[in-house]
Design a protein that fits this description.
The complex is a heterodimer of chains A (about 950) and B (about 230).
Chain A: H1 5-13, E1 29-31, E2 37-45, E3 55-60, E4 64-68, E5 75-80, E6 91-94, E7 101-106, E8 109-114, E9 120-125, E10 130-135, E11 150-154, E12 160-164, E13 171-176, E14 182-188, E15 193-200, E16 206-213, E17 220-226, E18 238-241, E19 249-253, E20 259-264, E21 270-274, E22 283-289, E23 299-306, E24 309-318, E25 323-334, E26 338-344, E27 347-353, E28 357-362, E29 368-373, E30 389-399, E31 402-412, E32 417-421, E33 424-429, E34 436-442, H2 445-459, H3 462-477, H4 480-496, E35 514-519, E36 523-528, E37 535-540, E38 553-555, E39 561-565, E40 571-575, E41 601-606, E42 609-614, E43 617-622, E44 628-635, E45 646-648, E46 654-656, E47 663-670, E48 675-682, E49 688-694, E50 705-708, E51 711-718, E52 727-736, E53 764-772, E54 778-781, E55 792-797, E56 802-807, H5 808-811, H6 823-828, E57 856-861, E58 868-873, E59 877-882, H7 897-929
Antiparallel strand pairs in A: 1-59, 2-3, 3-4, 4-5, 6-7, 7-8, 8-9, 10-11, 11-12, 12-13, 14-15, 15-16, 16-17, 18-19, 19-20, 20-21, 22-23, 23-24, 24-25, 26-27, 27-28, 28-29, 30-31, 31-32, 32-33, 34-35, 35-36, 36-37, 38-39, 39-40, 41-42, 42-43, 44-47, 45-46, 47-48, 48-49, 50-51, 51-52, 52-53, 54-55, ...
Chain B: H1 2-13, E1 19-24, E2 43-47, E3 53-57, E4 63-69, E5 72-79, E6 83-84, E7 88-94, E8 102-109, E9 118-126, E10 128-132, E11 137-138, H2 150-155, H3 157-178, H4 181-193, H5 202-207, H6 211-215, H7 222-232
Parallel strand pairs in B: 1-10
Antiparallel strand pairs in B: 1-4, 2-3, 2-5, 5-7, 6-11, 7-8, 8-9
The chains are: A mainly beta (about 950), B alpha+beta (about 230).
Chain lengths: ~950, ~230
């Protein structure tokens, strides 16, 4: 009887878990993010000098370099730059006027990228870390045919200035800076290159040393020290060193922000201005905005910020005598503000973004050229939060005395990046999600109420439960009219297949769970898995100081509630639907041992060993051998339901799984011999159930591990020797009580046992290794409500920027080796073992998209058994729904309603046509016999 | 992080070695007629001994360049969004003639095979090697559902059988009418005698099969029961 099933089973296996073309782009969602853009590395630029269309370029805080289309906010291209991992977190992005490349500088690498398509043009490594990169805009004309050259200032042991050829990336000249002064910044005028160094005086103050270089030869033409007296305590007080303008300037203030000093680079005179106080709050920040073009007017704007308000002053530089004069000031406005500088020919325009207004002035006079009121930025904030602009970049076109078009991108305090066109929000990019550090799924509260009410009815006395139920139905009746009104629409939509499953209203399948993301900046952002394109709410939950980091852990303790806890130990609950903080219910992790939970084995990493305690006394310790270090420990998930305790074989016999909720996979590395060891531990007794050693491992490559049900998996990169293979491997192991079918091993007869008291019965482990075409950086597994659905192994492929779902049947360690599968094995779906596992592109959950920088994948069960929700984060955010055993409990998109109705109709018609014929025939026959 | 490591190696080896590798992707119709259409995320990775790894993004001229390679045996993989590329083995060794130059060699390699199993030779050069690599196949991400197709539907054997029987039902009386009167009589006689027709024929039995009686174990009385039911009608 099984024989006819065989082809069916093999057919089913092949397309299992593939991405269907009608589901792609519909059930999955993806935000291709860059991270919070930095003010100094964001600008509008024309990738093709001959066309007027410009793109927004940015190099973000996540070191992602990318181009964004200002029309719809879509990403044109993106490159993730390696920062070198040091704390020296400076990065530069420059684009020369009329150039088709953008030049980035990060770590010790200067690279030029094709502005239109993001391909590398050239790259140069400097000896020390980069301090500044500028583009040389020479005014003499003969040097600037073709690509413009770049100048780089590098620090380290041998600080130097290098001029890099814009076309080839060859170093034209380099100038080594002598002395112990720290290089600070570069500044280029049309005739000279200035290297600005910081000189520490004996008294602890800093002074600015300026070295002027000839841009053609790289020889020093001049050198002098600026007499900044004693007001410059640290380099932090230097506001700005202008570059590439007609007259570059250096500006600094004293520590108390009472005077502003400006020096035109190349001269020694310093202009001093006293800063007026506008309100009782002290000035917290002073920023300088100057045009970045060599032909622009030498005007600049100084932006003052206090805790509650901001204002600005515009200064003009007289090029003939290098005198700086204050031209006009912009009034004080409450809240934070952002200024941006844009140029058109020689004119300079300043655009100001405040909480509720966008305005543009010319640098020459304070008359408003354009003014738009902003009703909202179109982003979700916290309850009662005032959304404020952080920084802005603008592109202005002016006709006569008014602004004819203005496009401004603003980074908001919520972390969203918004484009305003003529004062209206055109698109928003949720860049705060790029720094997501923790994620949890939560059921929305309205879903939960029904479950709670049912619970009340289940546990109350029958009469009360009955009354409760009648009352519930009466309240439900109130929804009947609206339900009836919507009914025809629903039927039509369902018939046409346009409603999808995300139609407003209830979510009976549990697909619309709330995803709460904690970001590095201390915000909590909630997304709806059913409508991921809009943020539900976004609120500040911590009071982080700049540079401070937190390591939150998120959990959904009960439905409708999101609990945030940080290392500090207290958890705060938030309503999942609207983000309201739930007061009065702040569970605090007890400092004292809690008697009710103390009878559990707890284990922690202490130093380089694993220690477990039972009843608050040491229970067992796992110490790796000398020279071995613990890489990671993955326990079986706490909530890991398993529906079947055995695996049914093709001949209807059963292999019993070794199911123990207290097992964990521990990976250790031995650096000296480049070996990796993997142990499966029983976390109650500390017994090692299984161990394996792999030699010749690249321990610097990622070694992800996963444990679920009765199996574990890990991946590593191995080094070649002539008779072995080189590359990336995936090992999968499965634990059984016994390898004999229908046999439960040593513990078979006993109904109760304790690993602490009875000698442990070791599981029988089957393992298999597969070679992969590319490395895996993270492993995860799908989760469903009851664990009936087969599991799917999720692997992050950083090289292909993909998230792949590997069906378990493909990597099953029971695949027969060296022979073809028998009929029974084929019935189970086992194929002959092949050492290479080619990752089928159909398994790519992200399909055509590129999911960059994924660090973690979380899964959650939906309300229906067949489906698991997947959410991946890191830099990009990607989510989808998976049905590893197909959507057996819900009609999917493959269900053709038209076909079904057409079949029914055809049958009805056929019946009507055939009935008289059959009647006539029967009557005829009757007559014939009588 | 990986690049940092490679940088450290770069710094260490830049003085001693000058082994460079340039991999270019030529136009290879029909699979990839225009290599400039490759996504900017296309990159090549050279994996050497543990800790040594070089990564190169695609350049404007459809090449990947690896400057200053240390002496080792490398696995070269090209990762692209839309295409698969074959893996290569790249060996950087000291030149046989004892000069400062190093020899760079490249072969195709096969996953799941021992490292010494080399495939077609891609080239060898002192100091600087330029090789070309072509995609092996395009990635196909989507599984199409077996949608409804009227021709496939008609082609299925069940439907064909149904159509033939429908043709018989409607066609038979027409043929009978057009038949020779003698032949028609002959045919009627044949049908009466035939095992399938008549009240005791197999067809009638099958049509009037008394399933309840059969299930009750009255196998022998089937015929009678069948007769009864036909009379009742």
């Amino acid at each position: 009887m099984l024989l006819p099933l065989l082809p069916a089973a093999t057919l089913l296996l092949a397309p299992a878990c593939a991405v269907f073309s009608d589901e792609a782009w519909n059930v999955d969602y993806h935000f291709a993010l860059l991270g919070a853009p930095k003010e100094e590395t964001s600008f509008f630029h024309r990738p093709n000098p001959s066309s007027k269309a410009s793109l927004i370029y940015t190099l973000s805080e996540e070191h992602a370099l990318g181009a964004v289309n200002p029309r719809d906010g879509s990403l044109v291209w993106r490159q993730l730059l390696a920062s070198g991992g040091d704390s020296h977190n400076t990065s530069f992005l420059r684009a020369g006027e009329g150039q088709d490349v953008v030049i980035s500088g990060i770590g010790s690498e200067v690279a030029a990228w094709s502005a239109a398509d993001g391909r590398l043009v050239w790259n140069v490594h400097t000896d020390g870390p980069l301090e500044d990169v500028e583009i040389l805009e020479l005014s003499d004309g003969k040097e600037t045919v073709g690509a413009k050259d770049a100048v780089a200032l590098s620090g380290g042991e041998h600080p130097m200035v290098q001029r890099i050829d814009g076309a080839s990336g060859a170093v034209k000249w380099q100038y080594s800076i002598d002395g112990s002064d720290a290089p600070y910044q570069l500044s280029a005028s049309s005739t000279e290159v200035f290297a600005i160094l910081i000189h520490k005086t004996i008294l602890g103050y800093v002074k600015l040393r300026v070295v002027a270089l000839d841009p053609v030869t790289g020889l020093k033409t001049d050198e002098y020290m600026l007499s900044s007296e004693n007001e410059l305590a640290t380099a932090d007080n230097i506001i700005s060193v202008g570059a590439n303008s007609a007259s570059p300037i250096i500006a600094w203030t004293d520590a108390a922000h009472t005077t502003l000093k400006v020096n035109v680079v190349g001269t020694k005179s310093i202009s001093s201005f006293s800063i007026e106080k506008h309100d009782e709050n002290a000035i917290e920040r002073v920023k300088l905005h100057a045009p970045y073009h060599i032909n622009s007017l030498a005007h600049f704007l100084v932006h003052y910020e206090t805790a509650t308000s901001h204002w600005a002053e515009v200064y003009h530089i007289d090029l003939k005598n290098s005198k700086v004069e204050k031209a006009y000031s912009l009034p004080r406005v409450a809240g934070r503000g952002a200024f941006s500088t844009s140029t058109a020919d020689a004119n300079v325009y300043f655009t100001r973004v405040t909480r509720d207004e966008l305005s543009t002035v010319s640098s020459a006079s304070h008359g408003l050229l354009g003014r738009w009121s902003l009703s909202s930025f179109g982003v979700a904030g916290g309850v009662g939060e005032v959304i404020e602009p952080v920084h802005a970049v603008s592109e202005v076109s002016v006709k006569g005395d008014t602004v004819s078009a203005i496009r401004t991108t603003v980074l908001l305090s919520t972390g969203d990046w918004v484009l305003l066109r003529d004062g209206k929000a055109i698109w928003t990019r949720p860049e705060m999600l790029a720094s997501t550090v923790a994620v949890t799924f939560a059921m929305p509260a309205d879903m939960v109420t029904l479950a709670q009410q049912l619970e009340v009815e289940a546990h109350g006395n029958p009469v009360a439960a009955y009354i409760h139920r009648v009352q519930r139905h009466i309240t439900d009746l109130q929804k009947l009219p609206s339900f009836l009104v919507l009914m025809p629409k629903k039927i039509v939509q369902g018939f046409l297949g346009t409603s999808a499953d995300d139609a407003a209203g209830s979510d009976i399948f549990g697909f619309r769970q709330i995803i709460a993301c904690a970001t590095r900046s201390g915000r909590l952002v909630a997304l709806d898995a059913g409508h991921p394109d809009r943020t539900l709410w976004n609120r500040d939950v911590t009071d982080l100081k700049p540079g401070q980091s937190w390591r939150p852990s998120l959990s959904s303790t009960k439905d409708g509630v999101i609990q945030v806890s940080s290392v500090a130990g207290t958890g705060v609950d938030y309503n999942a639907t609207d983000g309201q903080q739930l007061a009065g219910d702040l569970p605090v992790i007890p400092d004292e041992p809690d008697l009710s939970t103390s009878r559990a084995v707890r284990y922690t990493m202490r130093g380089n060993s694993l220690e477990a305690t039972y009843d608050w006394s040491p229970s067992w310790t796992f110490t790796p051998t000398h020279g071995e270090r613990i890489l990671n420990l993955v326990p079986r998930p706490v909530d890991d339901p398993v529906a079947s305790i055995g695996k049914v074989l093709g001949d209807r016999r059963v292999l019993y799984k070794y199911l123990d909720s207290n097992i964990a996979l521990l990976a250790t590395a031995h650096d000296a011999s480049s070996k990796a060891n993997f142990y499966v531990l029983n976390t109650i007794s500390g017994a090692i159930l299984y161990s394996n050693t792999h030699p010749n491992i690249d321990l610097t490559a990622p070694i992800p591990t996963i444990m679920s049900e009765n199996w574990f998996a890990y991946s590593f990169t191995s080094e070649a020797s002539p008779d072995t293979t080189k590359g990336h491997h995936l090992v999968i192991g499965e634990l059984f009580e016994s390898l004999l079918p229908d046999h439960r091993g040593a513990m078979g007869a006993s109904s109760n046992y304790s690993v602490l008291h009875t000698p442990a019965s070791d599981p029988f482990t089957l393992t298999q290794t597969y070679q992969l075409p590319e490395p895996i950086s993270r492993l995860a597994v799908t989760r469903t409500r009851q664990g009936i659905t087969s599991r799917q192994l999720l692997a992050v492929l950083p090289a292909s920027n993909a998230l792949v779902g590997i069906p378990y049947g493909v990597v099953d360690p029971r695949r027969p080796v060296g022979r073809d599968a028998t009929k029974d094995e084929q019935a189970e779906g086992l194929m002959r073992y092949a050492p290479v596992l080619e990752l089928d592109p159909k398994w790519y959950l992200n399909h055509q998209r590129e999911v960059v920088g994924i660090k973690e994948v979380v899964t959650a069960p939906a309300l229906i058994e067949s489906t698991s929700l997947v959410f991946a984060y890191g830099l990009d955010v990607f989510g989808t729904r998976l049905s590893p055993s197909f959507s057996f409990d819900v009609l999917g998109r493959d269900f053709n309603k038209f076909q079904m109705l057409a079949t029914v109709a055809a049958l009805a018609v056929a019946t009507f046509v055939v009935t008289p014929l059959v009647m006539r025939k029967q009557v005829d026959q009757r007559w014939r016999f009588l | 992080m990986l690049v940092l490591k490679s940088l450290a190696v770069l710094a260490g080896t830049s003085l001693a070695s000058a082994a460079n590798l340039t991999v270019s992707i030529p136009s290879s119709p029909p699979l990839l007629p225009n290599p400039s259409s490759l996504a900017p995320s296309t990159h090549a990775v050279l994996i050497g001994p543990p800790g040594v790894q070089y990564e190169a993004p695609i350049r404007r001229d459809n090449t990947f360049t690896f400057p200053d390679l240390a002496e080792a045996s490398y696995l070269l993989t090209v990762h692209s969004r839309d295409y698969f590329f074959p893996p290569l083995r790249v060996d950087v060794t000291k030149a046989a003639d004892g000069t400062q130059q190093e020899t760079v060699q490249a072969w195709q390699t096969f996953r799941g095979n021992e490292w010494s199993n080399k495939g077609p030779f891609y080239g060898s050069s002192n100091g600087e090697l330029k090789i070309q690599i072509q995609p092996s196949s395009q990635k196909n991400f989507y599984q199409d559902r077996g949608g409804f197709n009227i021709i496939d539907f008609v082609k299925s054997p069940m439907i064909l059988m149904a159509l033939v029987s429908v043709a018989f039902i409607f066609g038979m009386p027409y043929i009978m009418d057009n038949m020779d009167p003698e032949m028609k009589e002959e045919f009627d006689d044949m049908q009466k005698k035939g095992p399938l027709s008549g009240s005791s024929g197999a067809a009638a039995q099958l049509r009037n099969f008394d399933i309840a009686g059969w299930l009750a174990g009255k196998g022998s009385t089937t015929e009678q029961g069948a007769g009864d039911t036909s009379k009742k009608r």
